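Help! Submission page says 'invalid entity' but I think these are all valid:
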Amino acid sequence: MKAATVLALLFILSAGAQNTNPYTTPADRESGAKIFRSHCASCHGIRGTGGLGPDLTSGSFFHGSSDADLFRNIADGIPGTAMPGVFFEGTQVWQIVAFVRSLSGASAASSVTGDAARGQRQFRQQGCIGCHLVRGEGATKGPDLSVIGSQRSVAHLRESILDPNRNVSQDFWVAKIITRDGTAYSGFVMNQDTYTVQILDFSRGLQTLQRSEFKDFGIDRSSVMPSYRGKLNDEELNDMLSYLVSLKRQPARSE
Amino acid sequence: MIGILLLLFLTYASQRLTAQVTYERLLNADSEPGNWLTYSGSYRSWRYSALDQVNRQNADSLKVTWVHQMPTSHRIETTPIVADGVMYVSEPPSNVFALDAATGRPYWHYKRNLPAKINVCCDAVNRGVAVLGDRVFLGTADAHLVALSAKTGAVLWDVPVADSQTGYSITGAPLIVKDMVVTGIAGGEYGIRGFLDAYDVTTGKRRWRFNTIPGPGEKGHETWGGNDAWKQGGGPTWITGSYDPELNLIIWGVGNPSPDWNADVRPGDNLYSDSAIALDADTGALKWHFQFVPHDANDWDAVQVPILVDAEWQGRPRKLIYWAHRAGFFYVLDRATGEFLLGKPFAKQTWAKGLDSKGRPERLPNSMPTEDGVYVWPGVQGATNWYSPSYNPLTGYFYLTVWENKGYYLKGEPKYTPGNRYVGSVPDIDVPEDPGFGAIRALNPKTGDKVWEYKTHTKPWSGVLTTAGHVLFGANGGWLSRGREEMEAYFFALDADNGKELWRINLGGAMAANPITYLANGRQMVAMAAGGAIFTFSLP
């Protein structure tokens, strides 16, 4: 075996044992994207938004979010789940990790310079708490933000505040239902099947309604949230973002 | 009626004493509806039962009788086998339970130790076992075939069928033919070379193998473009076929060519992918074939259960096959010759202008995957798929589960590396903004016309069963849909004559299996897998 081959082999072996991803160039991401499309997308979706397998675009992963966790779960699979391992060298697995990371915008600016405490006050003053729930306080006319800092990138949060209509998750389309007896319901669709619809009605809370009772069932795909463009200056926006980013998932308390 | 029941019960009781599932009994499985002896209920694969205790008048009183929870985190796609009071049910990935069919109490549990890494395209599932004599046969996720003692679950033999480290696996239920156990193979997303195998039931020694992708010098090899693509040509056989004892033909469906969504490397028709094949049961020699989709690039496997019916066709009696194929056409074929007799769409399709006089599709432009993506009906999971259809001799209808949806087909680079996926990109399996819907449909098999349909909000992943009580059992929901939709999980009974709903129950877990029915202590039971469990139902 030639020395160069030995060196290359050692490099590949050591690449597999790293804790942080050594393959993060745009070319690596591109290679990872190609592998993802063939090997991962049938369960996780072409854009990584999920399907049979979970959504990979939040930057937070149920079975561990470090580079080493992602490497292990891709290479070996996750026991007890439908996630299989792959028969690839370390380099290719790291390239997949690089691509998966790019899905959450984690490579974009992920830190903000604002003041989280001021942001928290803003959050109340601007009336956000009138629609959003944060750790049990507030209302349910919008997404629960209790751990939003663990779920969404800064870029996503910025867009949601300035341009809430650009990308409305299906979870927050508003169902408008009128039943045969004339009762009107309005809220988020929590679930639906052939016979029933489960909604979080804005005034009545959780309700299961029978489709056979519907006179009218419409879905409004626009966001109920107003844009804050022009209502917040740059500093206030950064404060708000800092506050939202600080809302991280917390470890369970031990008894 | 009481006389028939008594007769059924006496037959059942006497068989229980002997406790041997002979080949003779498999040949005449129709005549003992108290048992469910093969994957599709009989060699004709009607998934029909002559039991009528549960019928149109009383199905609305069905209640849960027992539930058997299985300690698995994989999806349950099994069809249970019931023989002489014992239910043999596979637990994914590759385990087996023997249960008392009346109470659900386990007798034994075979648990297989699998290699750390196996690759099964869409979860390590198993669709069931086969029985003969006092043996139970199981194909495994690591591509072995195993014979177990029906009494204890002890391993009698365990033979490798193929190498699981290069993408081969077994997910389908074996079929007993004479003294052979016939098994298909899975791995169409891993660049395998598919086959159908027969093994000696006593020794596990292989009797024959039919390669679904012909090699150099074999007929059909010329349809592979003259390069090496055939070596990874796919053509898996992962759904249990049927058997015609008079013609001595095994009729089986062959899956997609590999790579699935980029056909550039394999110019030609790519025989015998996406085909029905008829093999001599003693030698495995090919007698005829019928290819549904030549040069497929949409993953439209022909892995459906062939339904064998003897009926009058245009004025004379003929041996027929009814076959609703994944790409959206219902076919009638002559099963002695493979001659094409009828082909008609049973769901929306935008890929074929029609079928010519030989049944070959006339492909429309813009129906193959492209680098930018193209919408085509049906979607990649097809207008139907592997889940079983049913034929009911009392109504004369063919019943099936249908998906009305489109797919977004993307073409990518095909690169073969052993053990890894070899697909050439993947399509968007579901289109959330336009997900389509599902349905149970009844077709008139003489014309292919729709007689009735029962629409479902989500697209079902389960097959159908019909009975002499004019009842159809089916399910909606399933495992592959976005987010919340996967929660739909109803098992229901419909009037087989008109599709009217008779009864339904929310089983609260993904359903992707086929129902069966049998007798336990003279009482008709209906069994269906849902979530992590087998549920059974009977009248109070």
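Support: the input was valid. A stray whitespace character was the problem, and the output above is from the cleaned input. DSSP finds two helices and 37 strands in chain B.
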